[in-house]
Batch of 3 targets.
Target 1
Amino acid sequence: MKQEIKHALTRQRIVDAAMEEFSRNGYEQASTNTICSQYSISKGVIYHYFKDKDELYLICVQNCFDALTEYLEEVSGHMRGSPEKKLQTYFDARLHYFADHQNDLGIFASAVFFPPSHLTREITELRLEFDELNVSVLTSLLKNHPLRKGLKTKDTVHDFEMYMEYFNLHFKEEIDRKQSLETLLAEHEERCHRQLNILLYGVLEKRK
């Protein structure tokens, strides 16, 4: 095996193990010692490829947001129908992505809701494309529809973003309680559809 390939495989093995550890325990409780003991990786090997725990965590955060953003960009390019239908498609896409990538869901929740304070700037930069995509998608859904008096598109988009993030956190908490994933998806899709109606028709001007 060529040395470059061997290095790449070793590095990826460390990142995969770190994704599981940070996803399960968050930044504060995660430990490189646990990664070493549970995945049979020596500490010397970890620090050969990564400077410290911070660098390893940020790599995991970057992988999470890069993959999620790429997936949602693909989905957003094929959304059709009413604003409600498009938004439902976008919310469902996020939900199904996290159902298929549960480590990413843990990393996402850690970075969004419980970020280590000394890494806030770096995390903000790593999630920039994801945030910009959300703003773009939500703005495009709202810009052609009159909002109720006193509401602004920018503020409304921000409210929708917060809802989506807390929606994902709630989903993670239910997964952590080991409920059936199939049941969770069905319940969340039903809840999402109901709450999207409340969000949309609480901000859009009433139709005559």
Target 2
Amino acid sequence: MTWSVSQTRRFTRQYKKLHDNTVADVDHAVEKVQQNPEIGERKKGDLAALYVYKFHSSGQLYLLGYTMDEDIRLVYLEAVGSDENFYRDIKR
């Protein structure tokens, strides 16, 4: 059974800046997360609620950060971007 997906403002802004070929890969990654939210790696410490799913697009590693609300089966897409400064930016 699939989960519902909701986007945060940060994710929407980052998503709009991506190239078309990367957008297709992000959409595919979102579908995978929607099918199985446990696929991502759960972070520790300050980002304990965050899950990160890693995927490649155009030969570059991208990270999709999300949180889950298991009671209502909802995935919140928090951020997407290259691994460069990803965690620093999401802590803000």
Target 3
Amino acid sequence: MGGKKIIKFFAVFFLIIIFIILSFVFINFRIISFAEKYIYTEMEQVPSKYTSIVPGAAVYGNKSISFVLRDRIEGAMALIESGKSQRFLVSGDHGTKEYDEVNASRKYVLKMHNIDESIIFMDHAGFSTYETMYRARDVFCVKDCCIVTQKFHIYRAIYIARKLGLDAVGFVAPEINRFSEKTRLAWEIRESFARVKAFFNVAFHTKPTYLGDKIPITGDGHETWK
């Protein structure tokens, strides 16, 4: 390969890298700027929405929920108990018998809160935030909702939900135990890539892993306890 061809090759390669970086930054900026006006940090300011949605997070041994998931659930319970939401939809990964985010969440709620069991709906196939919001719309017939999650995650969740047609707002889950700066940085880095994936999922109307029969959120949540 001649000298000019080498220079041309590296010039094209450099331009491609610059394009990828700029696209990455633009998508992240786009999602954050789109979602920020729908996000609340004070419960008193959150507008009433029929359903509170908690996206899944890690559980340990199908019994103990992570602090991340606990904070999301507690934020949603605050909305339920204050009358700002009427239904609770917990979504997550229940792809195997050995790993079950949604039943662990339900058990935690019933242990820690005195609420009507019938308002607890479980989405067993919420394998990603995109799938959670897609199934909330198409399986659970959710029209309006408040998504309760951490700040790093909430922009993506709101972007997806509203692009899918849900009247969605977000409530930043209050931290019961403060997370370390190292943990926050790791979340932010990982999330910056997840936003790009979500952008293309929305753009290309990606189908979720599972759909299934409709289970309207206006009904009895016991139907989802499987």
